[in-house]
Specification:
The protein is 44% helix and 12% strand. It is α/β, with parallel strands linked by helices and 420 residues long. Helix 8 packs across helix 9, helix 9 packs across helix 18 and helix 17 (381-391) runs antiparallel to helix 18.
Length: 420
């Protein structure tokens, strides 16, 4: 059990503030540990920082430095400062895909022994895998996420089990009702969709060294995206759609199926209080496992979420690890789930009655997390994701076999240190 022991402008502002704050602490007072990452709107991690500092008996206090919502800008901030050996970051809130790159570069503190056991205590397999690189642990799972299938129970009595079945169901509904709402914009969410399909088809995109491992599963995945885009039941804005565009279209009665993160449940029910159309949608909103690629085979969906990492260059990495373990203990996992809409990484939290009120689909979410996968886990991920986006976009223009041949060539170039 763990015990006490967004836009570019915002990221730049956070960086400047950290420098201004200095190292903090002295022989006669607590060390100031700088936490760099998103600040929970409901105040959970701010409260955790204050309570953990109080429980440290004067060893440390935690200063919170927020970043904006731009994942690319945040990664750039981290890479630049970590590479320079900057000692102004003690705890960083890392996207799950950062682990291989940061660990391989030698920037992150490895957790061993009791710290490792504490970090992984009762953690579900997907989140645990996201902090592990070459059988070593470099972070503490903090929250997680996985997409589900959301559907209209008044239009579809029984949810589809496969993508092919979903497309056929959609075609039997009116075009204005039967749309499949997905993330088709040229961005990270599109890579999540593709990775979900490749993994569900039994394949992978690259190995740990970044070399392509694309096979017929990759071709099938590209074919499914193309089939959705050309089915006549994709939203007209599919090629520019992100998560929230799909959510709003679903709430506006413009889709029978939606692939999206769990936040859409609470959002629909909240919006339904003031919008009669959304109210009807929310009342008929069902949830099911992410569709499979092959009948009888489970889906494998990419996890989202975040981990707390401890830079080696920080003022006191051992103390920072204690603080991070405290901030991610069970009670804060529970509060992030209830107040912040962030699914927990610990198995036991899904059995909490208050959490189950917020997540009536808690068992489904937990089951999906147990078979989840991490997006291509390689130090070259930032180049891999761009290669996927460039090659497979726009969705309606995909020629599956040709696209995968091109992607394989580009990924080989990236793995060899070049630019395609």
């Amino acid at each position: 059990m763990r015990l006490a022991g967004t836009g570019v402008t915002a990221v730049v502002a956070a960086a400047c503030a950290i420098v201004a704050a200095g190292c903090g602490g002295s022989d006669s007072g607590p060390v100031t540990l700088n936490y760099v990452g998103p600040i929970d709107p409901g105040g959970t991690n701010t409260k955790a920082a204050a309570e953990c500092a109080k429980q440290s008996n004067g060893q440390y206090k935690i200063a919170m430095f927020p970043v904006g919502s731009s994942a690319d800008a945040t990664r750039e901030l981290f890479v630049r400062r970590l590479a320079a050996g900057d000692n102004s970051m003690d705890i960083i809130n890392m996207d799950t895909i950062y682990t291989p790159e940061f660990a391989e570069a030698g920037w992150m503190r490895e957790l061993t022994g009791a710290e490792k056991a504490d970090a992984l205590d009762d953690v579900l397999p997907g989140p645990a895998a996201s902090v592990t690189w070459k059988n070593k642990v470099y972070g503490i799972p903090t929250n997680t996420n996985v997409q589900l299938l959301w559907y209209r129970k008044d239009l579809v009595p029984n949810p589809p089990k496969t993508w092919d079945e979903m497309i056929q169901m959609a075609k039997k509904l009116p075009a204005t009702k039967g749309n499949i709402l997905e993330q088709g914009n040229k961005y990270e969410g599109y890579v999540v969709w593709y990775n979900n399909l490749v993994a569900s088809a039994g394949g992978t995109i690259v190995n740990a060294e970044g070399k392509p491992t694309l096979n017929q599963a990759a071709v099938k995945a590209a074919d499914i995206i193309h089939n959705v885009a050309t089915s006549g039941r994709a939203d007209p804005s599919l090629s520019t759609a992100q998560e929230d565009q799909g959510r709003l279209a679903f709430e506006a009665d413009k889709g029978a199926f939606m692939l999206n993160w769990p936040y859409v449940w609470a959002a629909a029910h909240a919006d339904g209080k003031t919008n009669p159309v959304t109210k009807k949608v929310a009342e008929n909103m069902g949830y099911a496992a992410y569709p499979s690629v092959s009948p009888g085979e489970p889906s494998h969906v990419s996890i989202g979420g975040a981990n707390l990492g401890i830079p080696k260059s920080g003022k006191n990495p051992e103390l920072a690890t204690q603080a991070a373990l405290c901030m991610t203990q069970e009670k804060y996992q529970r509060q992030e789930a209830i107040k912040e809409g962030l699914p927990p990484v610990m198995n036991k939290v899904y059995d909490d009655p208050e959490v189950r009120k917020v997540y009536p689909f808690a068992d489904l979410l937990r089951a999906q997390l147990k078979t989840s996968v991490v997006r291509p886990f390689t130090p070259n991920y930032s180049d891999v994701t761009l290669a996927i986006q460039d090659t497979l976009h726009p969705p309606a223009a995909i020629n599956p076999q040709k696209a995968i041949d091109t992607l394989k060539s580009r990924l080989n170039t990236v793995a060899d240190g070049g630019m395609y």
